[in-house]
Amino acid sequence: MPDNSEPVTILAIESSCDDTAAAVCRDGEMLSNLVAGQQVHLKWGGVVPELASRAHMQHMVPVVDTALKEAGIGLPEIDAIAFTRSPGLIGSLLVGAEFAKSLAYALGKPLVAVDHMQAHVLANLIGTPRPTFPFLCLTVSGGHTQIVVCHSPDQLEVIGKTGDDAAGEAFDKTAKILGLPYPGGPLIDRHGKQGNGERFLFPEPQIPGLDFSFSGLKTAILYFIQRETAANPHFVAENLADICASVQHRIVTILLNKLKKAAVQTGIKEVCIAGGVSANSHLRTELTRLGEALGWNTYIPDFSYCTDNAAMIAIAGYYKYLEQDFSPLSVVPSAR
Ligand code: KG4
Ligand code: ZN
Questions:
Q1: CB of 160 closer than 6 A to ligand 1?
Q2: Whether residue 14 has its Cβ less than 6 Å from ligand 1
């Protein structure tokens, strides 16, 4: 068992997609949180897995080194190394996993394998105020859209999920239709701030229960843009802010209507959001407004803990450390 009088220091590594990230936390408090993005994908309009793995190889050592220096922590002070085991691009995961395993082996310290989606949810446990268990979390990223009940740090129950595209994909694919670069979510957010979200009405899919679907919305947006552009070739340029605001408004209402349903169904009033799309300003504002109207306690992670980061791997790793939930050095990453 860990000695409770000694602080617990975790070095965490995240490399599931196209960001190389490292963080150091001590007793659950973040001492550093570094992310190196990868510009190499820009001209391809999406993440190229092979290029992502190569960029992770280049960035890993400098990112980890800087995270340790910023935290003022030397390698001998690290109690465990946490890393993202799944899900993600397998070539990207392998780089982070192999680095974490080598370090754990060299230092003789335990290895903690973390699930990326669980870590997104647990980002809500960084800092204060933090939700009390059980809490609801709407996890919205580039690859996932889920509503989970978090009973404890290691007990997450998925009660709703998407059957096709994720919310982040709905943002990114819309951006592509509009001729905006990848990833389009932050750009739709930025343009949408200047627009009228009620100008263009897009359909809300009628999916039973707590599940989502975004593929129909994407098709509706594509046909709408094709129709309007045929009548006026400058339609997108002339109406970009209103289109972005309207798309964003629809995605956010789809998400929050399901979250409302989940809160009624479970009776839980502690409500969080997580994942890259939780950085969306409209979602953040509307969740706060809804929470005030319905008497929820709402929690929204700091921007740096929404998109992919290692702080969330560190906090998940910290709770696993307290449970002595370690992985053997033979552990392998998994894409799913
Ligand atoms: O969690 P994340 O960084 O990576 C995955 O695990 O997928 O999420 C990335 C997704 C992308 O689809 C990106 O467009 C979206 O998050 N995103 C946003 C915003 N910032 C990032 N979507 C809407 N508004 C934003 N401000
Ligand atoms: Zn993510």
A1: no
A2: no
Region 130-300: CATH code: 3.30.420.40
280: Cβ below 6 Å to ligand 1?
yes
Residue owning tokens 């002595």 = 324
pLDDT beneath 70: ranges in the chain: 1-4
From residue 291, alpha-carbon distances to 198, 209, 276, 294, 297 in Å are 22, 21, 20, 5, 6
Topology (CATH level 3) of domain 9-122+307-322: Nucleotidyltransferase; domain 5 (3.30.420)
* pLDDT tens-digit map of 187-238: 999 999 999 999 999 999 999 999 999 999 999 999 999 999 999 999 999 9
Residues with CB under 5 A from ligand 2 (ion): 141, 308
From the centroid of its chain, how far is CA 229? 34
pLDDT, residue 47, reads: 84
Q: Which two tokens stand for residue 213?
A: 């679907």
Residue type, 300: I
